[in-house]
Amino acid sequence: MAKKVSKRLREALSKIEDRPYQPLEALELLKQTATAKFPESAEAHVRLGIDPKYADQQLRTTVALPKGTGQKVKVAVIARGEKVAEATAGGADLAGSEELIDEIGKGMLDFDLLIATPDMMPQVAKLGRLLGPRGLMPSPKGGTVTFDLATAIAEFKGGKIEFRADRTGIVHVLFGKATFDAQDLLVNLKALQETIDRNRPSGAKGRYWRSLYVSSTMGPSIEVDISSLRDLKFGE
């Protein structure tokens, strides 16, 4: 049985043509089609020419969104000794050692991001089955395993996010709120594009970018002209 399309979504779909849009035009359309009754996020969905089952074709990294995410990020830190106090002073919402590991092991997941110091990782590793599927496991590549806690906390609270390609080679990443100015969304989307290009896996062969779509949380997908986005230059 076909799924019924809501009147709201039908109206949004009627505004979109089946073609790649110029980046700013696509983002203005994203804002127009964000008509849900809650503040929607702006999302990018990038299909890459990679097969992540091979180690040299995996993509996992971070991007610092210049205009922020528009979200409040709750950060937890697992550290030892004076590093716990350093994390708290640096703005961590939760900080602790073995007792925090135990709490998380019992199902306490009241945070959006988990940072750990390298010396605590052997103990954090036992939480892998709990944290891994939720994308919360600290990793050096993701910038969440570090002794420089104050910097890491400030960066992630200020708009730095971690992302990775899923097993089909698609990157799904939030890059702001639909309420942002279209130009600010464009600055963030450009930062994402540059980060994906800069971190191209060594094993990626042929055409790297296959498609790029943007949407609001509950809105329809809008195709973006990748070449136009890559050709954009800011601050010149």
Automatic annotation (TrEMBL):
Keywords: Repressor, Ribonucleoprotein, Ribosomal protein, RNA-binding, rRNA-binding, Translation regulation, tRNA-binding. The keyword Electron transport does not apply. Gene3D superfamilies: 3.30.190.20, 3.40.50.790. One of its GO terms (biological process) is translation. One of its GO terms (cellular component) is large ribosomal subunit. Signal peptide: none annotated. InterPro entries: Ribosom_uL1_bac-type (IPR005878), Ribosomal_uL1 (IPR002143), Ribosomal_uL1-like (IPR023674), Ribosomal_uL1/biogenesis (IPR028364), Ribosomal_uL1_3-a/b-sand (IPR016095), Ribosomal_uL1_CS (IPR023673). One of its GO terms (molecular function) is rRNA binding. Pfam families: Ribosomal_L1. SUPFAM superfamilies: Ribosomal protein L1. It comes from the Bacteria. Part of the 50S ribosomal subunit. Belongs to the universal ribosomal protein uL1 family. Protein L1 is also a translational repressor protein, it controls the translation of the L11 operon by binding to its mRNA. This is Large ribosomal subunit protein uL1. The gene is rplA.
